Amino acid sequence: MRDGSPKEEPTGESFFPDKLLKLDGQVRRLHDRVSSYENLKAWILRLPRVSEVPHKLGGTAFQADGVEFMHSHGPSWLDIRLSKEDQASVLRKGLAFPHRADVHARDGWVGYQMENSQDLAKAKRVIQLAYKNAKKNPRVF
Predict the structure, then answer these.
(1) Which of 64, 68, 102, 133 is the most buried (most CB within 10 A)?
(2) Domain covering 16-136, topology
(3) Per-residue pLDDT averaged across 68-87, rounded?
(4) 105: CB partners within 8 A, 6+ apart
(5) β-strand 50-54 against 60-64: which pairing, if any?
């Protein structure tokens, strides 16, 4: 202060650097999520005969020989189509969530939420099952 008395440091929730640290943590988590999704997407596109197409409801769909086996809604939410047997196993093991829409859940779809890079290995295991299922059930034109 100008009068020579010691400067008082702000404290509590209104202290600006605390808010910056909180925001920095949120930005780091978002960056980790986006980076993880980009890593996953690159891995998916290296699978034989996989293509990336726009999803009809927004987001990105992935197809094996024209059969959609998963799609994403942004970098953190994935919908993955499994066989009924794989769906039951994945849900029982807690590797994914039931799909939000019952009609899709009945068709083998599950939901998966990517939170960080530690989720990649688990996501790849579930997606590999979906990919194999799509390859076994080719689209009839």
Answers:
(1) 64
(2) Aspartate Aminotransferase, domain 1 (3.90.1150)
(3) 93
(4) 98, 99
(5) antiparallel
* Residue 96, token pair as written in the block: 């994914």
DSSP run (H or E) holding 125: helix 120-136
Q: Is pTM, for the whole model, over 0.90?
A: no
29: phi then psi, degrees, rounded to nearest 5: -65, -40
Measure the CA–CA gap between 95 and 90, rounded to whole angstroms. Answer: 5
Kindly give, in sequence order, each residue whose CB lies less than 8 Å from that of residue 7, ignoring residues fewer than 6 positions away: 1
What is the spatial distance between Cα 126 and Cα 139, in angstroms, rounded to a whole number?
21
- CA distances to 4, 55, 61, 124 from 50, in Å: 70, 15, 10, 14
